[in-house]
Amino acid sequence: MSNKLLLEIITPNGLIFSGHVNDVRFPGEEGEFGVLPEHTSVFTLLKGGIIQFTKDNGSSEALVINAGNVTIDKNSIIALVDGAVAIEGKGGDVAKSLNSIRELLKDVSDSNIIIASVEARLS
Amino acid sequence: MANLKEIQRKIKSVSGTQKTTRAMKLVSTAKLRRAEELAKRSSLYAKKLNEVISKIATSIKDNHEGGIEGLYFDTTRAVKRVAIVFVTADKGLCGGFNSQTIKTVNRLLKDYESKNIAVDLHAVGKKGFEYFKYNKRDIKNHAIGLSASPDYDKAVHFIASVVEDFSNKRVDKVVLIHNGYKNMITQELKVNQLLPIDVSNIERKDNDPTIEIEAYNEEVVLEALLKKYIEYNMYYALIDSLAAEHSARMQAMDSATNNAKEMVKGLKIKFNKARQESITTELIEIISGVESMK
Fold first, then answer.
1. Under DSSP, is residue B63 helix (H, G, I), strand (E, B) or coil?
2. Top-confidence residue, B68 or B23
3. Which domains, ranges and CATH numbers included, belong to chain A?
4. How far apart are CA B194 and CA B234, in angstroms?
């Protein structure tokens, strides 16, 4: 498993995701960045946006966060975020999930762009 | 001869108390479950946050040889004034839960005062606040209702003034005291030095890569992380303390219920004896009356 990344996404309410992933994209404070295995060890802040990752079975997942930080240490990634909502849902659930995303992002400045990209992803 | 009515009244009152304590125990058990769940979920975040802080701190130590720079990590600063932040419950009837915390605060107070160090008290919870107010201690800041329903924003608001004092160098050390949850039957008193962050005993292996701070302005990033660390530790202390409070109350109410049960049992025996006695006396009176008429 040395060429796999171990991603942990944790909120104050508990563990959101923990598992091996092939790649991750983070909404960094100074712009979006991607992480692949053997990434250099880095710590940085995250702003409101979408975390996107590909699990080791090839399926891709995404979730919206409002703020947080990420520590990349060798192949382990610890993302500590304040709040997170998974982007998922079909039919009636879409509206529900969009509402919870709007609620999550109400303090984030450019939330409209994030919501637009979430909508694009869901449709 | 004990008064029968009197004993009956006592039995009634004690069993009333027993009912109350049993109900309180049930309420605490239900609340404990929720608080415990919350504490368990948050403990992971707290643990990881501490891990990140120590990783970053040791990296800074590597980068700047000759000690960690920065205000928050400077443990060499001479201590002239200490801020003690302590968490107690708003309500009593939970055994030694509050008094344990108060005792520890008192001990620290004496300790610091003997070293001529001034102390600022910051109280969360009515019980601790009232105790120190009654003892005519100056309390710099207090919050009531926060320990019964922990709220992140309120916790942030409460600790902000303490952090400000520390940054302005009005206070040289911040200690956080609370009675934490260990398991259903034990509580553990926790005394944490919140500031400055002491990383002297964290060892980093040589082959571990140092973590770079990826940002235009390192200090801003570090400050944001430290702020989060302090705020979250405060919030976690509240959650942990709430879970401990409920477990302590559950235990206290359980033993109170048992005691009441014992008391009722004793009183019932006493009542029966007294009743028997009164019957015997009455019989003797009747028999002696009959005897005298012969």
1. helix
2. B23
3. 5-84 (2.60.15.10), 88-122 (no CATH)
4. 9
- Give residue for tokens 């006592």: B10
Is the preceding omega at residue A12 within 30 degrees of 0, hence cis?
no
> Quick count: other Cβ atoms within 10 Å of Cβ B219?
10
Closest CA to B96 of B225, B208, B188, B198: B188
How many angstroms separate the Cα of B271 from the Cα of each of B50, B158, B259? 61, 56, 18
Judged by CB atoms closer than 8 Å, whether chains meet at B213 and A28 is answered as no
ipTM of the complex: 0.82
Neighbours of A69 (CB within 10 A): 22
Q: Which residues pair with B190 in a beta bridge?
A: B178
3-state secondary structure of B65: coil
Q: Choose, out of B37, B45, B210, B236, the residue to mutate when testing the contact with A (most A CBs < 10 Å).
A: B45
First to last CA, chain A: 35
Q: Give the per-residue pLDDT at B65.
A: 45
Mean pLDDT of chain A: 84
Token couple for B279 = 């019957």
Q: What is the pLDDT of residue B202?
A: 62
Of B49, B208, B213, the CB nearest to A43: B213
> Could you please report the per-residue DSSP string of A73-121?
ETTEEEEEES-EEE----THHHHHHHHHHHHHTTT-TTHHHHHHHHHHH
CA A3: distance to chain centroid?
21
- Residue B146: closest CA among B57, B47, B245, B279: B245
**Tens digit of each residue's pLDDT (9 = 90 or more) over B186-217:** 899 999 888 888 766 665 555 566 677 766 66
The CATH code that applies to domain B23-202+213-252 is 3.40.1380.10
pLDDT mean across residues, chain B:
86
Please give the Cα distance from A26 to B235 (Å, whole number).
27
Domain ranges in chain B?
23-202+213-252
Show Cβ contacts of residue A103 under 8 Å, excluding neighbours closer than 6 positions.
none
Task: With CB atoms and an 8 Å threshold, state whether A74 touches B51.
Answer: no
Environment class of B144 (CB within 10 Å of its CB; exposed 0-12, middle 13-18, buried 19+): middle
Task: Please answer yes or no on whether B56 and A45 come within 8 Å at the CB atom.
Answer: no
Nearest CA in chain A to B56: A43
Compute the distance between CA of residue A34 and CA of residue A32 in angstroms, rounded to an integer. Answer: 7
| Predicted model pTM | 0.84
